Amino acid sequence: MPEPIAPVTAAVLVIGDEILSGRTKDKNIGSIAERLTEIGIDLREVRVVPDEASEIVSAVNALRARYTYLFTTGGIGPTHDDITADSVAAAFEVGIDVDARARAMLLERHKPEDLNEARLRMARIPHGADLIPNPVSKAPGFSIGNVFVMAGVPQIMNAMLDAVLPGLSQGVPVLAETIEAGGLPEGAFATGLSAIAARHGSVSIGSYPSMTQSGFANRIVVRGRDAEAVAAARVEIEAMLETLKR
Amino acid sequence: MPEPIAPVTAAVLVIGDEILSGRTKDKNIGSIAERLTEIGIDLREVRVVPDEASEIVSAVNALRARYTYLFTTGGIGPTHDDITADSVAAAFEVGIDVDARARAMLLERHKPEDLNEARLRMARIPHGADLIPNPVSKAPGFSIGNVFVMAGVPQIMNAMLDAVLPGLSQGVPVLAETIEAGGLPEGAFATGLSAIAARHGSVSIGSYPSMTQSGFANRIVVRGRDAEAVAAARVEIEAMLETLKR
């Protein structure tokens, strides 16, 4: 048998009071989750914390130790509440200053006379970090160690992720097959599904209810890294559902 | 001066592989955040974890110790991957069995002959828990200690929250005033905003950029529990923005 490839794991840290207050609805968790799944990286945890240095430092240190990669979003703008860069520097116990490369990127967008103290805050980069280009508005993200620090604005975050993802270790992509359970309620197929799950330990089988106007719309998702195992489980699930529909 | 009211804080724990894979986009974080803000409860942290017992136990124990309330969503259905109730029982080190009250609720929806083993899983409730009614599909949530365990399906979660919120300690509601910065970029007003923030320590002032087709659309939000302090900061911010627009 081929050597199993070690899983590549990730966490996402969403930084922002406005998410916790509910005034802004986060979209980045879902986007990053999808994009990591496509390249076989397992997103294992997400945290949302306030714009507070101690919270950011503590979450960054907990998550970067535990997973292959940590992606942060938010808090790298020019205003006084944008404290992510300083907090990440503190987490890594490194210094932080205006970075010449970052200043040069900002000058692609701002005339020198407009590069005021606030805008220069966006060029403050922890010592030792690499920059992540921002084709949308020029102010770069950065990466240090296994941590990728990105913008909160979804359009900019996704542009930064475009630059980051190709360079990462990719795991074996997880294949997913979805079986619509039609109008069948979970309670009707759960016992059969559980038995199938017990016989197919190399895949994960999840049941995801949702509601439409006419009632529950349930879907079963088989996920696994081996196409044959996924297909075998799928065949059994479809057969089991058929027996219930008669 | 009146005695300050101690803040009432909360965390949310979203349980579900399907959120972490990106196949399902969570809507509950935003809804719960909004609803808690309305009643003055400060949501301070959100975590998303897989349907894995050790992860759920560990997150439940960390969060319930740190905040006034913990709300969990997901994993209380009838299928084999619904392990939240057992995990919460393990976190509290209590037993778990089919609960007579919960079984009675399920019988409001299912005929006795249809109350199979899988559906009865939804009546498994940790010892000592109270039930949270589910007017949508009858299978109850539950609360134990300061932890409220709710469904993942948004319609059902919100119905459960309807039952839960009135019984909670409410903080003093946080007032929020939003000032649209029009087409002004953050870099133009950040310095002025920072100076105002430094002078108004009892409010929080955040700057939240977003993008429309015509460029940045920035909004400034002043938040605080004292109406006069919020209004005073607002007046200064509006005046400062006016000077920039000339």
UniProtKB/TrEMBL annotation, chains A, B:
Top-level taxon of origin: Bacteria
Gene3D superfamilies found in the cross-reference section: MoaB/Mog-like domain
Ranges for domain MoaB/Mog: 11-171
A UniProt-annotated Pfam family: FLAD1_M
Cited PANTHER family: NICOTINAMIDE-NUCLEOTIDE AMIDOHYDROLASE PNCC, NMN AMIDOHYDROLASE-LIKE PROTEIN YFAY
The protein, known as: Molybdenum cofactor biosynthesis protein
Gene of this entry: cinA
